[in-house]
């Protein structure tokens, strides 16, 4: 199954990622050109942050976050302090392939890892709000803004903004405006 999470790695880098969970393994698909791709190409570990949809969407904008650090044998690995749960993932394998689509070709790194430590940080979860899902979808659009037509993005943003304005908080609305591609 695929879950939306935030990966933290390197020197306070965060990225929203769809992580595939199968048995005891976690698989990530990372495209070349990102800090996360560069970090996980050389690092042996990363942290998988299970967090609110709001934090997932916010993490696509930049690396600014409220970090703490897990010490793993003298190596400090960042995690988001407001996560519900963190898991230290040991990278077991990497494979880089060349992919092609209508937008051109790019490198894709398939990273397989195994959780070796987990910690619950925050059990105070809130009820699901439709604005949560809408800001995550806007973050996906933001991350693909160079791969989708402007018209398609604008139509989808208009639809999502209606939901966010109807049921979201002030924070949802402010974040949606920043993600407004």
Keywords:
single chain; 181 residues; alpha+beta; Pnp Oxidase, Chain A; six-stranded antiparallel β-barrel; two-stranded antiparallel sheet; 5 helices
Describe, in plain words, how this protein is organized in 3D:
There is one protein chain. With 181 residues, this protein is of the alpha+beta class. It folds into 2 domains: 2-120, Electron Transport, Fmn-binding Protein, Chain A (Pnp Oxidase, Chain A, Roll); 130-178, no CATH class. The protein contains 5 helices and 8 strands; from the N terminus they run βββαβαββββααα. The chain has helices at residues 35-42, 53-58, 130-143, 150-167, 170-178, and strands spanning 2-9, 13-22, 25-31, 45-50, 67-72, 75-80, 85-101, 104-120. The strands form 2 sheets. It has a 6-stranded antiparallel barrel. A two-stranded antiparallel sheet has the order 5-6. α3 runs antiparallel to α4 (150-167). The longest helix has 18 residues, at 150-167. The model has no long low-confidence stretch (mean pLDDT 92).
């Amino acid at each position: 199954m695929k879950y939306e999470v935030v990966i933290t790695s390197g020197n306070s880098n965060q990225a929203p990622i769809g992580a595939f969970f199968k048995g005891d393994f976690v698989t990530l698909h990372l495209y070349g050109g990102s800090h996360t791709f560069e970090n996980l190409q050389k690092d042996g570990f990363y942290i998988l942050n299970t967090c609110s949809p709001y934090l997932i969407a916010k993490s696509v904008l930049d690396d600014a976050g409220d970090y703490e650090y897990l010490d793993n044998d003298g190596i400090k690995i960042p995690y988001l302090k407001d996560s519900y749960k963190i898991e230290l993932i040991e990278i077991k394998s990497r494979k880089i392939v060349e992919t092609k689509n209508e937008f051109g070709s790019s490198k894709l790194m398939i990273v397989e890892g195994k959780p070796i430590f987990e910690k619950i940080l925050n059990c105070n979860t809130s009820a699901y709000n439709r604005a949560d899902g809408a800001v995550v979808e806007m973050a996906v659009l933001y991350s693909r803004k160079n791969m989708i037509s402007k018209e398609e993005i604008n139509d989808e943003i208009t639809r999502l903004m209606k939901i966010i304005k109807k049921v979201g908080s002030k924070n949802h609305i402010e974040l949606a405006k920043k993600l407004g591609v």
